[in-house]
Amino acid sequence: MTDPKPTDRADAAKPVRTITDLARIAGVSAGTVSRALSGNSLVNTKTREKIEAIAREHGFRPNQMASRLRRQKTGVIGVAIPLGHDVQQQISDTFFMTLLGFLADELTAKGYDLMLRRVVPSNDEDWLDRFIGSGMIDGVVVIGQSDQFERIEEVADGYLPMVVWGNHQEGQRHCVVGTDNRLGGKLAAERLIAAGATSLAFLGDTDPIEFAARFGGAKEVADKRNVPIRALPTHLSPGQVSSEIAAHLEVIQHEADGVFAATDTIAATCLQEMRTKGIVVPNHVKLVGFDDLPIASQTMPPLTTIKQDIAAGAKGLVDLLLRRMAGEDTESLVLPPHLVARQTA
């Protein structure tokens, strides 16, 4: 039998006061420890017995209030917004606030309160397990997959009452509600080309799954029509978006006469920067956004955009979550996008 590693001895010597301490010693997530100690059958017998043995060895007793809340209903739904792809983005972003408003209305109508968390996953790898294992919520809605697709998939294997706003792809295990982003990208490119654009630019970060699907759909159409398209990375954080778009316009003025913005927020900022540079929309450049947020009809000129039905999405999130809280393993809900033609393309 080999001697324990120095780090193992150091971990074992530390006092065990929380589920996180116990998870560190057991080499599992905090969520797994929480489920094991509450007798959840989703944790396999070997892992549960290992965790229980370590807990006994260290005299660990889970917080009684948390245990009581896990056994009973709290009347609270957790809402987490992971921002691994853009840590400076704020939840005051117009899209988040619009979706949260509809979501809060739906939850209130069903008798639930909402607990909101903005998460930077690089600072807390167990952010989702920790939230679920807190004992403070009955279920969780995750808004956006960010760069956390695999983490969400892992949690979905052992936790049923979770629904995610995001992009659906074949074979995924977590339940998602969202728009057919690839089809939305196709509609945007088709509109720009029909309006006379001969070269396209995409403004957005193509790392997040939803934005990648939007760009992928636009590129598919552009390639079929032999129209060049170029992605120009653009972030949503207030400190970056204006300066990035200003720099991109130097390229767009020489290389593109059609712009597909990944969101209406980016599109609205693009309109402002174009006005500053004397670029006339749609005479010089055609522009299409994505979301159909309230701001889309208020820009000058009003923004042509791809509508995703955020109100229907919020209702779908709550309906599916309540069914999953009741023990049903539901299918995902993919909503169709629609072109809203205004004056920018």
UniProtKB/TrEMBL annotation:
Residues 17-71 form the HTH lacI-type domain. Coiled coil: none annotated. CDD domains: HTH_LacI. InterPro entries: HTH_LacI, LacI/GalR-like_sensor, Lambda_DNA-bd_dom_sf, Peripla_BP_I. The keyword Transmembrane does not apply. One of its GO terms (molecular function) is DNA-binding transcription factor activity. Keywords: DNA-binding, Transcription, Transcription regulation. This is Transcriptional regulator, LacI family protein.
